[in-house]
From TrEMBL:
GO biological-process terms attached to the record: protoporphyrinogen IX biosynthetic process
Keyword annotations from UniProtKB, A to Z: Cytoplasm, Decarboxylase, Heme biosynthesis, Lyase, Porphyrin biosynthesis
Official protein name in the record: Uroporphyrinogen decarboxylase
Keyword set includes Kinase: no
Residue ranges crossing the lipid bilayer per the database entry: none
Top-level taxon: Eukaryota
Pfam families in the record: URO-D
Keyword Lyase: yes
Record GO terms (molecular function): uroporphyrinogen decarboxylase activity
Pathway: Porphyrin-containing compound metabolism; protoporphyrin-IX biosynthesis; coproporphyrinogen-III from 5-aminolevulinate: step 4/4
Top EC class, one word: lyase
EC number of the protein: 4.1.1.37
Intracellular or extracellular location(s): Cytoplasm
Length: 366
């Protein structure tokens, strides 16, 4: 159905705050969205999940659109993020990924030795394999009616590589890191395969209607500086450059790009020179310190501790005020420092969103 929807003629944008903030332009209030804002803390999501598997939702554009809209219909958020997962790329490369109840993603046949790279469908046709994501994006852009911009996203190469080798979540990423030490050449080969797919995937998301892009390097924190600079950073840089070049070639306007390297404070300086308009910060870095390292021109996104949403509303107000006073209202997008937890009370999300708007509006009017 959505194949017939236009990918160029979208309803005009009514709230461009996050795009203005990403470009360093003035805003009349600080924009806010919440990482993993469409998910299990919402009763309407749990209800839908009780009837379909996670990937059934992701692969059905109509349902993915519906889930994307859930937090937008509840809260005064300044952006939607397309409902999907970073692990659709390993699936496009031919790997089986299951979502196990209370365990999360699981690969029944992870990559074990470099010879396993031969099993990957390296030259996969992204448009065909991940067409459901692009359809969901186009449908969601029309459904949003220009209320807020739509964010597209991808995992970064190292984070995806680590899932493909670990076969699921891991605290140490030791199996994946073993590849970096034992098989550096083959690791680069895998990272290159992933980078090429990610670039095509992000370009197609913009062509389908995504208005910002976020790259999640969720497993930055288990690398040291040397490994990050060798195996993660070069690919993060190639992605921002080639996505922009490819969009130019296709005469499609480029969109602001956000890099979020969780626990990546040790490479902030390098990330600030990687041609992303926005740097996502987790809660372990002081805003002033991040500013000193990155300078005044980039936009920051973050960095409230996701557990702050367990606090009382009064304390949450104080923390929102503190965060805004430290980041300021220019070059800033409010968010959590990582994804929201499933047992958070949606009322506290509403409180945070409304307080960030109210407090920042007062700051700006002063
Ligand atoms: O059982 C369920 O219903 C699945 C729960 C769930 C949801 C709602 C998963 C499994 N993924 C998602 C959606 C999702 N994942 C979004 C949707 C858009 C939104 O934000 O609203 C996004 C952006 C992601 C991205 C994602 N998936 C990341 C990057 C962000 C981060 O948290 O660092 C990562 C690492 C994943 C992998 C993943 N998918 C799901 C889980 C539980 C995990 C983490 C597993 C682990 O490493 O322990």
């Amino acid at each position: 159905m959505s194949a017939q929807l236009s990918t160029t003629d979208f309803p005009p944008l009514k709230n461009d705050l996050i795009i203005r903030a990403a470009k360093g332009e003035s805003v009349d209030r600080v924009p806010i969205w919440i990482m993993r804002q469409a998910g299990r803390y919402l009763p309407e999501f749990r209800e839908m999940r009780s009837k379909q598997s996670f990937f059934e939702l992701v692969q059905n554009p109509q349902l993915a659109c519906e889930v994307t809209m859930m937090p937008i219909n509840r809260f005064d958020l300044d952006a939607a993020i397309i409902f999907s997962d970073i692990l659709v790329i390993p699936q496009a490369l031919g790997m089986v990924v299951e979502m196990l109840p209370s365990k999360g993603p699981s690969f029944p046949s992870p990559l074990i030795v470099p010879a396993d790279l031969a099993k990957l469908n390296k030259d996969c046709d992204v448009k065909k394999e991940l067409g459901y994501v692009f359809e969901a994006i186009t449908l969601t852009r029309h459904t949003l009616q220009g209320r807020v911009p739509l964010i597209g996203f991808s995992g970064a190469p190292w984070t995806l590589m680590s899932y493909m080798i670990e076969g699921g979540g891991s605290n140490t990423q030791s199996k994946a890191k073993a590849w970096l030490y034992k098989y550096p050449e083959e690791s680069h080969e895998l990272l290159k395969i992933l980078t090429n797919v990610i670039i095509d995937y992000l370009v197609e998301q913009v062509c389908a209607g995504a208005q910002l892009l976020q790259v999640f390097e969720s497993h930055a924190g288990c690398l040291d500086h040397t490994l990050f600079v060798k195996f993660a950073l070069p690919y993060i840089r190639v992605i921002s450059k080639r996505v922009r070049d490819k969009l130019k070639e296709r005469k499609v306007a480029c969109v602001p790009m956000i890099i979020f390297a969780k626990d990546g404070h040790f490479v902030l300086e390098e990330l600030s020179q990687s041609h992303y308009e926005v740097i996502g910060l987790d809660w372990t870095i002081k805003p002033q310190q991040a500013r000193r390292i990155c300078g005044d021109t980039l936009t920051f996104q973050g960095n409230l501790d996701p557990c702050a949403l367990y606090a009382s509303k009064d304390d949450l107000t104080k923390m929102a005020k503190d965060m805004l006073s430290k980041f300021g209202y220019k070059n800033y997008i409010a968010n959590l420092g990582h994804g929201i937890y499933p047992d958070i009370d949606p009322e506290n999300v509403k409180h945070l969103v409304d307080q960030v708007h109210k407090i920042s509006q007062e700051m700006i009017q002063k």
